Amino acid sequence: MAGLIERYRDRLPFGPDDPVVSLQEGSTPLVYACHISERVGAQVWLKIEGANPTGSFKDRGMTCAVSAAVREGASAVICASTGNTAASAAAYAARAGLRGAVIVPEGKIATGKLAQALMHGARVIALRGNFDQALELVRELAQRHPIALVNSVNPFRLEGQKTAAFEILEEIGTIDALCIPVGNAGNITAYWKGFQEWEPGGALPQMRGFQAAGAAPLVHGAPVERPETVASAIRIGNPARWEEAIAAMRDSRGGVEAVTDEQILDAYRFLASQEGVFCEPASAASVAGLLAYGAPEGAERIVCVLTGHGLKDPQTALEQAGSVIPCEADLASVERAIYDGS
Ligand code: F0G
User: Fold this and answer.
1) Would residue 102 be called left, alpha or beta, if left means φ above 0 and alpha means ψ between -120 and 50 degrees?
2) How many angstroms is it from 198 CA to the middle of ligand 1?
3) Which CATH class is domain 4-56+158-319?
């Protein structure tokens, strides 16, 4: 399968001779969710963005941001990140032969993401501060140094990420609502752009954003100084794409709501144990929101975006899952362990 620049080049700001840095991202599965559909009384699909090369939707934006950086002659890329952007930037920088630096909040990123960024050879800086402070610092750095900033304030990131909307429309046609977790608010902005661009005058879905209750600035209408949530990927108090996200939700007659950590973790376990889909906690916010608030009135066809893979955050998974059963190495013990669970 082609990478997404190749697949959608006529809808992206890349010419036929431009350099392309790709890991064949995009073209991710859209899986029908029987149990969730039954619970909400509508047809619900899951867009499995964890199936991208580095395990999150960030790869869609990163193939475009890094390809553009190469085209512009950059020699290094930088980003602030709650983890996934860091992993993706590090991978695409490695592939392009660029230096990569990522700034993450110390102790607040999931283990898998840290392992990825380090393995891909990025300089990983653990900031004694949160994501919002990290983003402020990299924006200033990128102004002073010849480094390409690859956060979603970079318009090429949104260009790449809008292709997920194209894939949904190509595969199942128009939908009534999109449920999506919101952190820095780039992805909801990108999906809305994609839905609008696909076919002028086409039917558009309601954009329904969900934030973690402890990090819900868009719900409160004011920045959150000390955001807190188990969903570390969306532990963000002052989203960069604030206005665009609000406009997308307003213009689509959608909205933004908060979901508690408990609701997020319930949805996280439900997805894994009932639908067979293992996503990371932040991703489960989309399904948690749909389950908590119900299908929008009249909505029959809904897509929930699952933004990142469950293996990103093994620690939370082990805390939330059942425990292993220790067992002696003989048949009777194994039988007892299997049938009695002891
Ligand atoms: N889900 C996951 C798994 C994420 O990693 C992020 C953002 C989001 C949802 C929210 O997307 O920011 O476009 O609203 N992660 C960024 C990062 C902030 O640094 O990896 P958004």
Assistant:
1) beta
2) 24
3) alpha beta
What is the residue type of 171? Answer: E
Instruction: Count other Cβ atoms within 10 Å, centred on residue 199.
Output: 11
| 106-151 pLDDT per residue, tens | 999 999 999 999 999 999 999 999 999 999 999 999 999 999 999 9
* 326 CA distance to ligand 1 middle (Å): 37
Q: Is 81 in the pocket of ligand 1 (CB under 6 A)?
A: yes
Residue 100, token pair as written in the block? 């990569």
Give Cα separations from 325 to 278, 319, 321, 331, 339 (angstroms).
22, 15, 13, 15, 12
**For residue 67, how far is its CA from the centre of ligand 1 (angstroms)?**
21
Q: 58-155 in CATH: which number?
A: 3.40.50.1100
**C-beta 234 within 6 A of ligand 1:** yes
161 lines ligand 1 (CB under 6 A): no
Give the residue among 189, 317, 312, 314 at the shortest CA–CA distance from 254.
189
In the reported structure, the alpha carbon of residue 282 is separated from the centroid of ligand 1 by a whole-number distance in angstroms of 8
- Report pLDDT digits (tens) over 324-339: 999 999 999 999 999 9
Cβ of 238 below 6 Å from ligand 1: no
For residue 254, give the nearest of 328, 192, 202 by alpha carbon.
Answer: 192
To the question of pTM greater than 0.70 for the whole model, the response is yes
Q: Which residues contact 323 (CB under 8 A, 6 or more apart)?
A: none
**For ligand 1, atom 10: residue with the closest CA:** 183
Helices assigned H by DSSP within 81-130: 84-96, 111-119
Considering only CA atoms, which residue is closest to atom 15 of ligand 1? Answer: 233
Domain boundaries, the chain: 4-56+158-319, 58-155
Whole-number CA gyration radius for the chain: 20
User: From the CA of 235, how far away is ligand 1's center (Å)?
Assistant: 9
282 lines ligand 1 (CB under 6 A): yes
